[in-house]
Amino acid sequence: MDELKGGAPAVCGCRQKATPRSTALQADVQKRLNRAIGQLNGVKAMIDDNRYCGDVLTQLAAAESAVRRVSEMLLAEHMRTCVVEEIRAGNDAVVDEAMELVRRFSK
Amino acid sequence: MDELKGGAPAVCGCRQKATPRSTALQADVQKRLNRAIGQLNGVKAMIDDNRYCGDVLTQLAAAESAVRRVSEMLLAEHMRTCVVEEIRAGNDAVVDEAMELVRRFSK
Amino acid sequence: MDELKGGAPAVCGCRQKATPRSTALQADVQKRLNRAIGQLNGVKAMIDDNRYCGDVLTQLAAAESAVRRVSEMLLAEHMRTCVVEEIRAGNDAVVDEAMELVRRFSK
Amino acid sequence: MDELKGGAPAVCGCRQKATPRSTALQADVQKRLNRAIGQLNGVKAMIDDNRYCGDVLTQLAAAESAVRRVSEMLLAEHMRTCVVEEIRAGNDAVVDEAMELVRRFSK
Q: Which domain of life does the protein's organism represent (chains A, B, C, D) (predicted)?
């Protein structure tokens, strides 16, 4: 089952990642996600409190930047593990899937 | 107190918004923020579950896009209310502050 | 003739800019556009020469960044002049047009 | 000489691309670059003519979008050829270089 399936890529053979992420990477990502969630909860409170637009937008930009950084970390890890493994296994279709992820990331 | 203060813009006279956001806009924004937070919690569970990179990145892109849309809505509201009011009041410095927000938004 | 016309905004009353850009701004913008055009001609030569992808992409990124900077300068000038003038003249529709330009800029 | 060299990546062994781009891709890219250059020359004329900001920004956005599309095409081609070849040759450093290009592309 190495083929790509439309809308639900299963390149690594299933929906799990073949090479698990390191404990360190997982911990770092979870910490960043917690921070982003905390910032968004902060924005919710600021909206309730009728806070000034500039301040709310600054907080939103911080949250967006945190989410983006997580995407970048996971994309880099994806390239270093899944993409390399699939290419070595002869499954070059993984490259088009990766470009699709890059395109979405760069929006 | 109409001046801009470095790092903590107080163009509207204080850190509250002079013209409160409409109840409808507040409700819409809070709903979108809740959805983004839900998506990020979903990502946390996917990381714990060693889910495939492509699926995690898709969920992260959805969250980022939700946050971005909120920023855009609040920036538009800011321009329609605070910026217009300050310009009419002769405080053109609000334009440079708005451009700074635009620059941050477009990163 | 103060209305917005679909696809061909004429907020300033006609397709000319009401307050001309300063000579200094014009010269700066033209210099930057010349540089971007030079960089794109450089990319064309690199393609003819089968140059390495990374080098071509670096040159393209420089050109894109130059074009983006010009957009940012003109958008800031637009806000400081046309937008302020129209708001003072009571034509608040200029704000929605400006947000549309911001949205396109931030793509 | 397969190593990456700071600032001047030579992953494919030299500054030429190991697998030449197809004639069709080259022709498509050159056509798009010509169009972008034409649009930038159009912007220069619009600046000389004091044209309305919104119209100038629309033209700039078109040029930027054309340049971006060329970057995307070349990045995809890079991944499909150089990156795959280098990974097969055991040179995994190409992945980090590719991520650096992705990061620059997504700015």
A: Bacteria
Q: For A14-26, what is each residue's pLDDT tens digit?
A: 489 989 999 999 9
Q: Report the alpha-carbon angle B102-A35-B100, nearest 5.
A: 15
Neighbours of D3 (CB within 10 A): 9
3-class secondary structure, D16: strand
- Contact list, A44 vs chain B (CB under 8 Å): 30, 33-34
Give the tokens for residue C78. 């637009």
| B43 CB-side CA count, 13 A | 31
Tell me the domains of chain D and their CATH numbers. Answer: 23-105 (1.20.58.1000)
d(CA A64, CA B71): 9
Interface contact D29, partner C, CB < 8 A: yes
pLDDT at D1 over 50: no
Cross-chain Cβ contact A64/B61 below 8 Å: no
* D57-84 residue pLDDT tens: 999 999 999 999 999 999 999 999 999 9
Average pLDDT, chain C: 88
One-character DSSP codes across A14-81: SSB-SSPPPHHHHHHHHHHHHHHHHHHHHHHHHHHTTB-HHHHHHHHHHHHHHHHHHHHHHHHHHIII
Cβ atoms of A21 and A77 within 8 Å: the answer is yes
**Predicted pLDDT of residue C55:** 94
User: Can you say whether the dihedral through the CA atoms of C68, C73, C74, C76 is positive or negative?
Assistant: positive
Alpha carbons A77 and D95: distance in angstroms, whole number? 10
Q: How far is A90 from chain D (nearest CA, A)?
A: 9
3-state secondary structure of B66: helix
Cβ(A11)–Cβ(A97) below 8 Å = yes
Task: State pLDDT tens for residues B9-45.
Answer: 444 444 899 899 999 999 999 999 999 999 999 999 9
Q: For residues D80 and D21, what is the distance between their CA atoms, to the nearest angstrom?
A: 11
